[in-house]
Amino acid sequence: MKKTAGIIIGVVAALMLVSAAYVHSMSKKPVVKDTFRIGMIAPLTGDAGFVGVGMKNALLMAREQWGDGKYNYEFVFEDDQLDPKLSASAAQKLLNVDKVDAIVTVGHAPRITVPLARQYDIIHFAIAVQKDIPDGVNNFSHWAPSVKLNGLLIKEMQKRGIKKVGVFRTTSLEAWVAYYNDFLEGIKNTDIRVVTDQTFKKGEKDFRSLIARAKPTNPDIYLIFVETPELEIVAKQIREAGINTPFTTLEGFEVTEQPELFEGYWYVSPVEPSEEFSKAYEAKFGKRPPVCSPNAYDIFNLLATAVERAGSSPSKKPATAQIARELKKIKSFPGALGDLLVSDNGMVMSGVQVKMIKNGKPIALEH
Amino acid sequence: MDILTQLVINGIIAGAIYTLIALGFNLIYGATKFFNIAHGVFAAIGGYTVFFFFKLSGVSLVPSILAGVLLAGIAGMLSDRLIFLPLRRKRGSSVIMLVASLGLFTALQSVIAIMFSNRFQTLTDIFNIQKTYQIFSGVITQIHIVIIITVISLTIGLFLMLNRTKFGKAVKAISDDEEVARIIGIDTDRVIGYVFFIGSAIAGLGGILIGFDTGIMPTMGMGLLLKGVIASIVGGVGNIYGSVCGGLLLGFVENFGVWKISGEWKDAIAFGLLIIFLLFRPQGVLGK
Fold first, then answer.
1. Phi, psi of B60 (to 5 degrees)
2. Which residues of A249-271 are buried (b: 16+ CB within 10 A; e: fewer)?
3. N or C terminus of chain B with fewer C-beta within 10 Å?
4. Gap between the Cα atoms of B58 and B67, Å rounded
5. Given a cut of 80, is residue A16 above it in pLDDT?
6. For the packed helices B188-213 and B39-50, what is the interaxial angle rounded to 10 degrees?
7. Nearest CA of chain B to the CA of A311: how many Å?
8. Could you give the ipTM of this predicted complex?
């Protein structure tokens, strides 16, 4: 009897010892964090290279400030030089080779990435104006809506008594077409009218005959919808043709490296980034944050917040649907572009303002 | 400003720019009988040399322009010595030469992009508004007057060179029949080398002037070359005077075209003109 009891006690003690050792070993084993990979498709070289470089810097800065979270965050940066062919191959590489969980895009890349995000079931965050890009399921966007930008543009035109608008615009980039269509829609019930609409392809350098056509219409203001360097070339050639009519645009004067050409002219663009963001960016990279960089910064913070909230275990990152759900729950978020709200259709709402180039720098006139 | 006067001025300006490219292209085509695609990149070499010396290094304007023209010419002559001459000696067909020139174009364009980035650059400080002059009811800028005077001077210079000098007569002899020219004692390889130098230097000068007008970028060569080739074919391929005629015709058609239709159709108008000429007058306005 004593012998049997001794055996039982021995076995129990041995089992307890083994269990204790196992628990001890488990408690010492480090938790392996899952990695959430974010791809970025933007121009990193070429005329618009400063946009992509600014986005890349902002993403890296946001991750650094995020610190040690539930998951690791990795980036893969792809340069598309604002060329849709390169955007398409970059998207395929990010999805099939790098196996990213989310993609951040700008330029031509958003339109290309929208269906791929659905097909591969990933999160796609576009810095894009087109209202049909976000769907709140896979696709989200973070840019001031075109209707909002145009609304303020039209309001400012009315305030300044502008009635006749001359337009110079490219049809090569979808965003400018979207802006123009919303502008036309917005002026329908006003006394503002487009007296001349000159369209051209990206890469055009000789606008003189288009200017000769536009000049007799004598507009109160020229609305220029094109990115750099055509923006500066059009403006320069208009002045060389002896026309002193002022210029305006949406967002465009922000991107120019020759603000002297637009000195004293007002325009409408998304709100200036917060001072905190601007100072941190300038301290780290030695220059003012370029256009789209605050958006990229906000996108990382929104994404990381949603991922961390959706994830139950550090060893397994959450599914896309869970992240999307958490993103749409965000109704007030302190971002670089103010207090952000994610709408149910996946659009991040931020403000717009009237700005003016003064002493070569953009200054806010009105929120 | 009367729109018609301005369109005429714009047509002359555009025509002069196309002529600058077509002149060198036709000169080289006349001597070698192949479409030298690389011709476009020599315009970029000229522009970027001035950008490097004048804007980046602070060298004064005239030496910078001379360096740009010379470097473009030397690059053109070297392309002949290192690539086209060996191919000619191996009796390479014009298709092989064309493919080789395309390869050279791509390689040199990439080198420029690596050295100076793909960004659009200006040769002057920012986009300086140029001084303008009134001609009747139209406006013309200082640089456009320089471009037009340059084209007139170059055309007269080439005319005199081809008709009044021994070298020019050798070029014309090679243009007629390289084999016979060699038999009668002309050092055809050396003359073609010089033709490459002159043609590429003219392209380089074109790139510099365009750089002062609008700006430069590594890919500028292809667009210029296409318009230069259209001007050559329309005027008469291989014909120096055809370059002027074709360039001006192309400039006028493009500028008067966008008077009535959208500016997006500018390139379509140019290529439409090319197709019409290829179909109905393939020898061009002046023929060979």
1. -70, 165
2. bbbbbbbbebbebbeebbbbbbb
3. C
4. 13
5. no
6. 50
7. 42
8. 0.86
Q: Over the stretch A303-337, which tens digit does the pLDDT of each residue have?
A: 999 999 999 889 899 999 999 999 999 999 999 99
Q: Which residues in chain B touch residue A241, judged by CB atoms under 8 angstroms apart? A: 1, 6, 139
Which one of B258, B259, B269 would you mutate to disrupt binding with A, by most A Cβ within 10 Å of its Cβ?
B258
Residues of B in contact with A240 (CB under 8 A): 129-130, 132, 139, 141
Are A240 and B1 inside 8 Å of each other by CB? no
Tokens of B166: 């021994």
Inspect the interface and report whether the beta carbons of B214 and A215 lie closer than 8 Å. Answer: no
Residue B140 and residue B14 in contact, taking contact as beta carbons nearer than 8 Å? no
- The secondary structure element, H or E, covering residue A79 is strand A72-79
- In the predicted structure, residue A145 carries a pLDDT above the cut 90: no
Instruction: Quickly state the pLDDT bin for A120 (edges 50, 70, 90).
Output: very high
CA neighbor of A348 nearest in space, from A275, A304, A299, A310: A299
Give the CATH fold of the A35-144+273-350 domain.
Rossmann fold (3.40.50)
Which amino acid would we find at residue B162? Answer: L
CA atoms within 13 A on the CB side of B127: 25
Domain boundaries, chain A: 35-144+273-350, 146-270
The pair of three-digit structure tokens given for residue A160, joined into one six-digit string = 């300044």
Sheet strand arrangement including A193-200 = A193-200, A164-170, A221-225, A247-248
CA–CA distance, A80 with B192 (Å, rounded to integer)? 41
Residues of B in contact with A360 (CB under 8 A): none
What pairs with residue A166 in β-bridges? A196, A222
| Residue B183: both structure tokens together | 């038999």
Cα separation, A214 vs A223, in Å, equals 12
| Model confidence pLDDT, tens digit, residues A235-286 | 999 998 989 999 999 977 877 777 888 999 999 988 889 999 999 999 999 9
Contacts of A333 (CB under 8 A, 6+ apart): A298, A301, A302, A305, A339, A340, A341, A342
B141 has pLDDT over 60: yes
Question: Binning pLDDT at 50, 70 and 90, where does residue A203 land?
Answer: confident
CA-nearest of A96, A128, A136 to A112 is A128
| Closest by Cβ to A212, choosing from B6, B14, B267 | B6
pLDDT at B262: 87
Contact A81 B10 (CB under 8 A): no
Model confidence at B87: pLDDT above 90: yes
Torsions phi, psi for A66 (to 5 deg)? -65, -35
**Second CATH level (architecture) for the domain A146-270:** 3-Layer(aba) Sandwich (3.40)
Residue-wise pLDDT for B31-66, tens only, equals 998 999 999 999 999 999 999 999 999 999 999 999
Cα separations in angstroms, B152 against A280, A329, B16? 57, 70, 9
